[in-house]
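Kindly go through the entry underneath: sequence plus fold tokens. Please state briefly how this chain folds according to its tokens.
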Amino acid sequence: MPRRTDLRRILLLGSGPIVIGQACEFDYSGTQACKALRADGFEVVLVNSNPASIMTDPEMADRTYIEPLTPDLVTQVIERERPDALLPTMGGQTALNLAVTLAENGTLERFGVELIGADLQAIQKAEDRLLFKQAMERIGVRVCPSGIASSLEEAEAVGAAIGSFPRIIRPAFTLGGSGGGIAYNPEEYAAICKSGLEASPVSQILIEQSLLGWKEFELEVMRDLADNVVIVCSIENLDPMGVHTGDSITVAPAQTLTDREYQRLRDQSIAIIREIGVATGGSNIQFAVNPVNGDVVVIEMNPRVSRSSALASKATGFPIAKIAARLAVGYTLDEILNDITGKTPACFEPTIDYVVTKIPRFAFEKFRGSPAILTTSMKSVGEAMAIGRCFEESFQKAMRSLEIGRSGWGCDRPEPEISEREIDRLLRTPSPERILWVRTAMLLGRSDDDLHRISGIDPWFLAKLRRLIDAEQQLLTGRALASLDAEELLQLKQLGFSDRQIAWATDSTELAVRDRRQTLGVNPVFKTVDTCAAEFASTTPYHYSTYERPLQKLNDAGELITMPPSNEVHSSGSGRRMMILGGGPNRIGQGIEFDYCCCHASFAAQEKGISTVMVNSNPETVSTDYDTSDSLYFEPLTLEDVLNVIEAEHPDGVVVQFGGQTPLKLAIPLLEWLDTDAGRATGTRIWGTSPESIDRAEDREQFEAILRTLEIRQPRNGLARSEEEARNVATRVGYPVVVRPSYVLGGRAMEVVFDEEELNRYMREAVQVEPDHPVLIDQYLENAVEVDVDALCDREGNVVIGGLMEHIEPAGIHSGDSACCLPSVSLGEEALAIIREWSRGLALALKVEGLINLQFAVQRDSEGREIVYIIEANPRASRTVPFVAKATGQPLARIATRLMAGETLAEVGLNHEPKPPLQTIKEAVLPFRRFPGADTVLGPEMRSTGEVMGSADSFGMAYAKAELGAGEALPTGGTVFLSTHDRDKQALIPVAARLIELGFSVIATSGTANALADAGLAVTSVLKVHEGRPNIEDQIRSNQVQLVINTPIGRQAAHDDKYLRRAALDYAVPTVTTLAGARAAVEAIAAMQSEPTLSIYALQDVHATC
């Protein structure tokens, strides 16, 4: 049946900020849906709070609202825009839950809005644990022995009926297993049931008998209105049940099922999607299979595009979200043409002739106090995917794609020494490193049977991993590089061994291995992801590398001749070509913002007639969509793999400044290689700011020389190569000081220390200070305001500032975790003029071509004058670029790409600093709820996973909207708890006075209460936890506190108040840990009291005159 003609305008809900369990895979699905619907002639209205996403670019939808995803604000959008339909299946759990609320409260009916893609009944049947269980019983599909509970009392009764431990708790209507977990004893059971009931918006949990050790599978299923059903992809978890599928290593297609077992899962999936009633679009269905007897139970179903849908789309080339969007508006699968083949319809199920492996990336080191153990509650912050001809190749490529310092599965460093007893524990406990401990156990002589018994990992996977150990021992151990022949190198490369692994084993270098390999004719070939295992020709250049044994054939004379390798890369003819290096897997400090910049680089180049080549390893992103660039290479971002693509494509320019630290680390080695004979033969050079300039900005001594020449002030600082030197430098600089190792990025292991005792402890516990690894020590600018500047510079030396942002949290809080506002609200004209002048000077001194990000701090002296300091300069794209683009209407990354390709600012049409039409705030979103035991206090180490944006006419209202979007809605009445360090008490008095004026009751611990009472303020004293009962923790847990303001300074204070901040987190009480944040919160509360109905803005209206 053709597309519906009764629909004209469709509302699409995004997924909000990047959080654990809901990351940029929903930007990918939302962007695909926007493009598909608009291509079919529909008007699209989009609501999403995340400014860093491609889907919130004003050209993606007809009307774009970057607003908090709450029922009230979405209702306002519906009232204003009057859509005909709401498509809720592209924005993850957030959009689905919002759609359910709007349907249940009558909003959709009141405005005549139809739910398409999945109706209310289907969503409820899939998401409500009880309804789903009943539906499965009706069609004879087994579910795990379980019970439903809506209270702790009911949970106890269900637990008694199940009897045994462990038990798995799964909250309803949540994402990424949030609030759930595995309970091994009654105490854990009570705690997880409580957190699960709180996490579920309908206060409902499913309690299951444990299936730990069973194998886990997922099927991606699609259905249309004519009841056609296709299975897009099967995915198998390498880890057995008990690890959230988002945290497990997964492999596609499923590897260990017999044909009969696969057909059974397929039949059950089709029955399930029909019973649940998902009439159009994609669903993800998860199964557990008993490895002993083959019994199957269904775990759950997502009646929407899921995290795995992005993986399945990239693994197969089948664009699930795009096709789901078209099915939702009336098309059937047989009417939709497959973009990749251009011949087959969408009802032609994908077939793949390769293996795909996804490995998650974690950030436990950022959350001290939270154990690095994997459970059914998702903890990973990103993932890498790789494609190979066999599991071994795909797995090793995925390992080196993770960017955790590994060149593959071991064979890249000395093996760890460990006891037999310890290895058992490490194999039994799911963790990010367990797969590496499997290797250690194999090298210690453990059998595959032993490893299977302890870890539950299927014998098939263990046998494949054993092949890697055998190959390493037979072909590499004790060998010199010169002794390896072509056949041996080919065997190693077919098993995914990187040049770096071979170099480590043969005591040579990566480039020496490359030279030896190429001399012997062992080169990669590039194959195509074509959805049909080469049954039809593919029109889309979506490639992966592999190694093939040359084929031979008889010629007419009867002689055996060797055929040239069948490379599937076809040059697209004349014209300039630009290769963009992506950001690799998401991680804290390097997320969707950099993928946004890479996408914009591709869009801008294509608009100017330059062919684009994207290289990336992240399956979640828009950059790895097959139609974002002219060619896509799904490859690890290592020197070896990038050089392979350069030799295949011969691009004119390579862009390294947009993908964050990942491509920057490759910049100097790449530059050196391009200067060799092999490099010059490609005709390629690095476009934009030179790698030497980037290095000059990152090297402290070179950067200081530039600052001295330009007479730019920086905080007092020093470099220490020993503990004694560190004490001397800190004394000279003056406490407090910021200390950090010089060899890590993203603020890792960075700390503010206030005296020598704390410095000594830092040196003992946090870092290994050595001559090769010095520690950087900087003056800590107390109560300084931090400023971020994104500027553009062209080849002629013209500089335009794109955005100047003032941070709300003080200097010392990592810039990625601080809220910031554009335009600036509190800085004087003189300070702003100095910042602009220094920004121009540094951009010219570093010979920037494209973007540069600079960070400044502004501190008032004793006479109230503003003193400006430079903190750092990075001649590359920064994480603030998308926010600035949405706030000002100027697409900085696109403009920067054109500058890098040789245009000037005048030719681009940007001659002056753009002025934002509204006050905008960017707020960070932090994942503390996922990490029990971690402290929520902000510091110099970045821990946020995503961001939201608030826009309004005033600072207070913009901040209120940003906090609402971040899930930290500020109260407009009730009780505020105050507790601050002695040095903050005087500054707290006006904040407390204003809160009382706004109608709040104020309670405080004794020291803070005395200071406020002495100032004549009405305050009630409350006990600290160690002072007796009832104390402040009791009050928080009794819902008697609506806002917490707690500013600990120094390690001891931070530790003392940790229990209090954790209680506030558990009970979703907004918590502010800086005085600057408290002042902003008070302004926001005042704005909300005076204007209870929040205003909303469409980007297209805001920037209509830009």
Remarks:
- The CA atoms of residues 896 and 960 lie 32 Å apart.
- The first strand starts at residue 9 and ends at 13.
- The mean pLDDT is 91.
- Residues 259-276 form the longest helix (18 residues).
